[in-house]
Amino acid sequence: MEPARWLAAGFLSLAYSGLCLWSGRRAAGRSSRLAEATEEQSWTVAYASQTGTAEAIARQTALALQRASLTVRCCPLNELDGQQLAAGGRFLFVVSTAGQGEAPDNGAGFAEMLEADDRALDGVDFALLALGDRDYPDFCGCGRRLEARLVARGARRCFDRIDMHRAEPEALANWQGRLAQLAGADEFADLPDGEFLPWRLVERQHLNPGSPGEGVYRLRFEASGQPLPRWESGDLAQIIAPAEPGCPRNYSIASLPDEGALQLLVRVRRNNDGTPGIASGWLTQGLVPGEEVALRLRPHYPFRLNGNHAGPLICIGSGVGLAGLRGHLAGRIAAGVKENWLLFGERSRAHDFYRQGELERWLAAGQLERLDTVFSRDGEAFLYVQECLVAHAELFRSWVARGAAVYVCGSRAGMGDGVDRAIREILGPDGYQSLVQGGRYCRDLF
Questions:
Q1: pLDDT over 90 percentage in the chain
Q2: CA distance 444 to 446
Q3: pLDDT per residue over 176-230, tens digit each?
Q4: Paired residues of 198 in beta bridges
Q5: Backbone torsions φ then ψ of 47, nearest 5 degrees
Q6: CB within 8 A of 323, min separation 6: which ones?
Q7: Helix, strand, or coil here: 152?
Q8: Which residues pair with 314 in a beta bridge?
Q9: Which residues contact 121 (CB under 8 A, 6 or more apart)?
Q10: So what's the pLDDT on residue 118?
Q11: pLDDT band (50, 70, 90) for residue 379
Q12: Rounded to whole angstroms, how far apart are CA atoms 406 and 400?
């Protein structure tokens, strides 16, 4: 998971203005490109983001530079090519790590290009913030490999890579200190936490009693003492458990603002010793309806519908991944868009068919064009959702040919990786790349 805390725009403005000044001084005696006045030089802020945190930080970084009257380009890593990089310039990379150390979807193409391209990058100056989670074996692996490859080809670091574990205060302080040195300032103020607001739990429902898997709960929250804020389908809620201050957890929002409350689907996670996870155990067992939580809304740009709000939509997910998909479907149905196909997998139809009544009503009303379900413990022909997808390969190709977007939400291990392999197999390399590059393949995996 990516770290959760955003850098304050004012802090970034001061810090990066100092970075510009430092880089301008460092440029003396080098090529005429680097000898230009700082205010005349452009910056590229490039991000690789799976859950949206790295993108949010990159966008704030770019905004801070723009407010300093600098020319800034902000884009996903995949929008940079070898020729642009080899031309040199100033780059700020904000890079998260997905899965077992891979690049996020919007940075995977760039990572492959960087490995295959041998052109010198001695005209590149860069700084890199790597986001990650030490609970995963290859902590900040994508950022580490990106930095190593850039340096091996001659690029120059403005300062050593900063690795950030979630919202680790020490890493944030290190990041602050490095930028403060570049700006010639003694210190910067602490980063603000004002974005978290109190939300009250008004209802909790156990959705799968008797399931062979862990308990899944629907939680319904209302904003305390404030109008209900707005969010878009695909966005995330960040919640801080009392036992984990400073370590917010991300949860896909399953509802829309017009429904009057914020809903989540939360599965109990178990530690190796069988005890419930700190956050999931508190939300599903410890938190009492009527009590408040510290929660903030997180725009999840890579998983929003964006330009895919009106065309055909294929939603694929398993388990509590239904939450992020349900928001998209509910919004499109409310807007009268009916070309919707949901493929959903879980353990048992009798216990784990979350929101069954709603989904079947949508299907009967023609608001959901197709509903394919797979329950692995029921002895069905297709054990997993990716196998169901392969079985409907011809139909899947026809939907994609009509312009369908594909949204995948749920566990990366097993489902997410399996679905990705299935899509590659069904569409072939060219078709797969066309889907990705067209912004029609979006994933929210955890």
A1: 62
A2: 7
A3: 556 545 434 344 333 333 379 999 999 999 999 999 999 999 999 999 988 999 9
A4: 294
A5: -130, 150
A6: 251, 252, 253, 254, 263, 264, 265, 409
A7: helix
A8: 341, 406
A9: 85, 86, 88, 150, 153, 154, 155
A10: 87
A11: confident
A12: 8
Q: What pTM was computed for the model?
A: 0.76
DSSP 254-281: -S-GGGTSEEEEEEPPB-TTSPBPHHHH
Other C-beta atoms within 10 Å of 332: how many? 23
pLDDT reading at 129 higher than 70: yes
CA distance 257 to 250: 18
Q: Which residue has the tokens 């452009």?
A: 42
Q: Which amino acid is at 245?
A: P
Q: Look-up: residue for tokens 């392969």? A: 390
Q: Is 306 left (phi over 0), alpha (psi -120 to 50) or beta?
A: left
**pLDDT at residue number 401:** 98
Q: Sign (positive/negative) of CA torsion 210, 212, 213, 214?
A: positive
- Closest by CA to 142, choosing from 175, 109, 184, is 109
Q: In the predicted model, what is the mean pLDDT of the chain?
A: 85
Residue 63's pLDDT is 72
